[in-house]
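Chain A, query sequence.
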Amino acid sequence: MSAALGGPLREARRLEAAGRLEEATALFLEAGARADAARLYELRAESTGGALDRCRLLAQAADAAEGDERQRLRVRRAALLLDLVSERQYQVTRGELRELACELESFGEPTLAAQAFDLAGDVEGQTRALVQAGAVERLEEVLDAEQRRERSERRRLSAEREIQDLHRAGRRREALAFRDVPEVAGLEAVSAVFREIELRKLVGPTVRLRVAGKSLEVALGSDVTIGRSDTSIVVQTPALSRSHLCVRCGPRGPEALDLGSSNGTTLSGARLEIPGVVPESGRLDLLLGGEVPVGIERWETGVSLDVAGRPVHAPLGVWRLGGWRLEVAPDGWLDLTVVEGELFLHDLRVGARVQLCKGDVLRSIASGPPALEVLA
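Chain A, predicted structure.
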């Protein structure tokens, strides 16, 4: 009724006096009294408990105000918003922060602009705003921090490139050593290289290779063992002991030795009590646990085994492949060392020693046929 008698403006003032500020604000806007509406928005912002509500009301106050008053209110809201973002109570995008910083800069508020540029990660804008503010000490801190960041970034990029290059050059052991370098910790590109190396790393001691086009399963190491588990060649049958038989180099050449198995090893029907020497020509035929036949013949410096129809070659020590030497390193890596000639890994000429991974293709001549392929 009062609005009808006295109009919206008079009713708005009555509601304000009665403390009904939200209703009064709406009527001031209806009456076109925008300055009064802006004043009440700000008053309500001061009395509200929530910082986000204060930001909202200050934004409404600025929208209602005009001229210098609008700018003052926008600056006040911006200062509150930046505090909320700094305290991680509110999130805005970097782009929005940069726009806010530019607006504050245009309002002649370089200190607040510098804070906004800082939160946006815009060092150039922050530096410019600090110069305008005359904040010499803070400017020096920012420049020092940026120099440290740039040095760290250069070290990071250098380490990332070096890790990639070491991997491509087959120097996987050195590449993995970078896992302890702080500059590369958590970098996805580097972590992906580490994961690839670990996934492709040969765990041995048996590996599948293709040598000069011929596929071979090779048991590397100074000896080869056969058993139910934890051996070079695993045959999962209860007839065998965990470690049943060992083939090694003895004083008279390669020899087979029963490792004290439960079900024993027989040679021509008789239990193998002493090491059985592999003959210069011919074959040593054994029966493990009364169930698993094993044939052993001499091959290069070691032996060729036929384990229940599964052919496995064992060099019984370092394996010479032309001018290359292949062996299992103490840390488990399969190391290939160049003694003579050159080595090309995936058509890239590499150094004298590499750690092999599954899928590697090695050549002795650039663009020549593969001399060695690591299958698994």
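Residues 153-200 form one domain. Residues 136-168 form the longest helix (33 residues).
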